[in-house]
Amino acid sequence: MVAWGIVMTLMGIVQGFHGLLIARLFLGVAEAGLYPGVAYMITMWYERSEAQFRQAMFFSAASIAGAFSGLLAFAIAKMNGVGGLPGWRWIFILEGILTVVVACIAFFTIYDFPDTASFLTEEERAWVVYRLKYQGSKDSGQMVAETERFKWRYVIDAITDWQVYLSLFMYWGIVCPLYGISLFLPTIINELGYTASTAQLLTIPIYITAAVLSVVVAWFSDRAGQRSPFVFCSMCAIAVGFIMVISASGRGVPGVVYAGIFIAVCGIYPAFPGNVTWLSNNLAGSYKRGAAMATQIGLGNLGGGMSRVLSMQLDASSDG
Fold this sequence. Notes:
This protein is an all-alpha fold.
């Protein structure tokens, strides 16, 4: 996060397109390990039946940030001319500095594993480690411990496991529309006939509702001990939403298009943590689980590039 924040800050002082492009490349490098690391860390603190709720809490924070990022950027842009810098530069500088500050605080307040957490007593650390080590024994009734010694074989097992690639295709099915909507939602709403400021405001109910729904669905999924029904229903909502958008586009019914986007986003946000948790629940051993989650999320984020390339092709065809 420190590297991420520094690169973000430096993006505010680049002097040309090529400098901005190179800085954006390094921003991606710094950002790449954040979500896989956080998702993996959650599995090292919580049992399988508790994980999705925590994954959803973290992921929904991105939804809340998305709800207010436009307004924050709009406010910071008012600093145009301060220090002789245009407003867009201040957006990068201030948000980058904030990221560095939060990262420094997190370094001293977030612990990697339960057995190194100084805020727990020795008995509490032993209890947390024990319940995680033997969490796979509840259904079988046999005390079978997960291995904790690293071997390269576990990494190979992870990258050759068919479950990883099946979940990866599901991940792409979720993250492609996620990136598309995240990048273009204000523009989409603006093109429906609303002003730019109104378009920013109309994104807020979508993101807030999606964040709340993500947490609620995760809670029920953990309580039920099931992932697939909730992921399936969420992905059906994505399909229904986009069908509405496609059917109503260009027909003079912006309210229907907006409702379709609303439904699609409310399917995307519960499906994402459900998909990540589903894979982690089905892989035993912390090292295999960590390698598999890194593969799923790392390759899965190529969906962002797919979404961007697809949108550029569609723009080119519409302009032609």
